[in-house]
Give the backbone structure.
Amino acid sequence: MGAQTSSVTSNQGLNDNIKPPTDTQHSTAKGSVDQCPHFQQQSSQKTTYVSECPMSGSVGNSDVNPLNMMPPANQMPAPDQPFPLSTTRITSSIPKVAEKEENWVYPSPQMFWNAMLRKGWRWQDDALAPADMENIVRMHNINNELAWLEVLKWEALHANECMNPRLQSFGGKAKDYSPRARIRNWLGYKLPFDRHDWIVDRCGKRVRYIIDYYDSEHVDHDTLTFTILDVRPAFDSFGAVWDRTRAAWWRWTVRENYDATEANTRNELIKTAKRELDNKKETLRPSQ
């Protein structure tokens, strides 16, 4: 539970020149790759967001889905787009609160491209190829898969009351730093470059989780590790306080074995998430 290093592997690698525009006041490193295309807002533009990617703020549109603060997906190519992008969307392993059993769906490379343009990004400024967009989307997807697996670690403390928690809604709060992030910053650590709040349905009980995204300050070219996730229940109920107190106690009392176990678990989660997403993508490939 807690901090989780996120990584992704790719046969084609990551183009180091990719630098999606981020709010420089809140980015912890020059080359940060944001988890979602919610980049610095242009004062002369109306803010719009990409479907299924958690965001915060008002978009001033009656069609916005209140569960994820997104308008309908835009899958149309941009007028000056230099190459075609896939519109295939991968279904996540994250269960959704709905009448029928279904999971949340990730944005396509085309949706990411459109969202980046709406936030002021100029593709002419970067040496960008179609494979780079595929890599960015893959990073986004695996980050969310790993975040959900971290949530499930916490939810395992309540397996006796709920065996199938689901993600009800989510939103981004990049500029609204959590108390934990602020305290770490006062102690000399860097601020997270992004924050998401996820609302989990624990069989009828609403539980809020905070996810802080920290820049690892380098990309490991073997594992492409780039982001550290800090996932924990918000301090907004006695139950959450008790869960975090228990987890902290366990970490300190079994510290000798905790780091090694956490590292092994992290690697297994990364492999599992990547394998599942790649299998889904391979299954959908003929329909493109």
Remarks:
- The chain has a mean pLDDT of 73.
